[in-house]
Amino acid sequence: MNEASAVESPVAPTATEAPWDPPDRRRTLQLALAALWFLDAVLQLQPFMFSRSFGPLMLGPTARGNPGIVAHSITDVSRSIGQHSVGANAAFVLVQFLIAFAIAHRPTVRLGLVLSVAWSLLVWWFGEGLGGVLAGTASPLTGAPGAVLLYAVLAVLLWPTARRPAAPCTAARLVGPPVAKVLWVAIWGWLAGIAFFGSPTRHPGTLLAGLEAGEPRWLAALNRHAADLVASRGPLLAVVVGLLFVVIAVAVFLPTRPARVVLAVAMVVGLAIWVVGEDFGTVFSGSGTDPNSGPLLGLLAVAYWPLRRAGSRRWVEAAA
Amino acid sequence: MSDPSWLLDLFAAVMLAVSAYCAVRLVVVRRLHRTLHYGVNSAHVAMGLAMSGMLVPVLNAWPNPVWEALFAGFAVSFAFQSASFVARHGLTGLSRDHFHRVTHYLTHLVMSFAMLYMYLAAAPVPAHAAAMAMGPAPGTAAFVGLPLVFILVLCASAVWHVDALSRFTPAVVAAAVRAGAASRGGEVGAGPEARWLAPRLEMGCHIAMCAAMAFMLVLLL
């Protein structure tokens, strides 16, 4: 904080308190989203991103397995980025800083959230190849259906509005409890579907072992141990993880107390995915552009955390 | 692999500007007999100079051990201030500003540790090098979790400050200065020099410093 308010006592307590409210839960979540965009911008400043390899080697491969129109558009864009790597990457950095600052600055928060949705969708298409969903390479263990998609969902759910001040959770303020529930079920149900039926989750050993390259020794060892542990248990792991996601998906239909337990489990799952499956977004390898989906899943769970309301015993009752 | 040199030069220039501004701020405050957090502003001066020296080695004013001792001193000082503030006022309560005040000292404690880490973990670069190809020193791979924690704190601090910008509109600050002057006997005591003390300018410096420090730490991951 600024010392003007911390120390210069004549300034702080009198005039500055009236027009400014400390962040509430929704504002805190918006700031967390802004902090993630800020982190993305800083990661985008890494040397590799300015090199000519960034486009063809990092973005280009996401085209593989996608339908023709998607694959061609990704290949074209990645080639263009490779040809103008410095300018393009500088623009990416600026856009991400802009989104972070716009969300964090109260007068521009709406602009920031709109930009967040637009940029997320662009990155999801051209940067993540639609999260590998159409290519059949998606696995919830490694960030499917794409971290940026969760940025977009959060930007919508955290839209500042005066509607529904008594909503049962922060996520329901704009869209209302029924739509908020549908979104939650859709996200976790989708993850469950990918876990059950996606090919990569059935071969988790290969998936996790492939993460080792470029990681520090301790993280590579963690990957190796995790890969050894699940190598011969692919189908079993797919079923267990899928069932866990189904349980999380129905959390929003549970009474408040069990709902909180399951949401806490969702946060732990997000953390586990972030550490073991995503290697902290591969930020230690010099090629990570964002922290991946783990922290976003945690934020999402916080947004759905049932708020304390006098007399409300069920998430659903409070919504009525 | 190194970043484009213009990027390092740009960050170095911004850090020098931040450092110079905070130094001016210290001088102006003394002339106007206003209160100020001298520790934080002194830390910003030192951090700005040190980071510009890391980014562009020819700007490095002092040998690394001197910087390390300086930031160790800042770390001890901020640790003491954090502890004494919490001991006096607790972790919650006091006012709506309370959380800001607690994190104020802790953030600068983390920044001091981050500076120390950068000096201890960065691979040495010849002083005559034109621009720094900053990277981790061999043997630091086991500690890369630490800079990641620093980076997360810096990102959070930056957006926290951006959020607080809107509480210091010029009108609000002018009213506060008048109110403060009235409580001291009616003398406003703020001429053109007082513009140098604009809170949002100082907060902007902190945000820039967070961005630059996070960028440098990312290079050490």
Question: Mind explaining what this structure looks like?
Answer:
The complex is a heterodimer of chains A (320) and B (221). Chain A is mainly α and 320 residues long. Chain A is 66% helix and 0% strand. Chain A contains 19 helices and no strands. Chain A is globular. In chain B, helix 1 runs antiparallel to helix 7 (199-219) and helix 4 packs antiparallel against helix 5 (145-164). The radius of gyration of chain B is 19 Å and the shape is globular. Chains A and B meet through helix 1, helix 2, helix 3, helix 4 and helix 7 of A and helix 4, helix 5, helix 6 and helix 7 of B.
Rounded radius of gyration of chain A (Å): 21 Å
Greatest interface = A-B, 54 and 60 residues
Principal-axes shape call of chain B: globular
Biggest sheet descriptor of chain B: none
- Helical residue percent band of chain B: 55-70%
Q: Could you tell me the number of beta strands of chain B?
A: 0
In short:
The complex is a heterodimer of chains A (320) and B (221). Chain A has 320 residues and is mainly alpha-helical. Chain A is 66% helix and 0% strand.
Which features does this protein show?
heterodimer, A: 320 residues, mainly alpha, 19 helices, globular, disordered N terminus, B: 221 residues
Task: Describe the SSE topology.
The complex is a heterodimer of chains A (about 325) and B (about 220).
Chain A (H helix, E strand, L loop, with lengths): L2 H4 L5 H4 L9 H19 L3 H4 L3 H6 L8 H16 L1 H20 L4 H19 L19 H11 L14 H4 L1 H21 L1 H4 L1 H6 L7 H14 L3 H16 L6 H22 L1 H4 L10 H11 L11 H5 L1
Chain B lengths: L4 H28 L5 H18 L8 H26 L8 H24 L23 H20 L5 H14 L15 H21 L2
Helix pairs in contact in B: 1-2, 1-7, 2-3, 2-4, 2-7, 3-4, 4-5, 4-7, 5-7
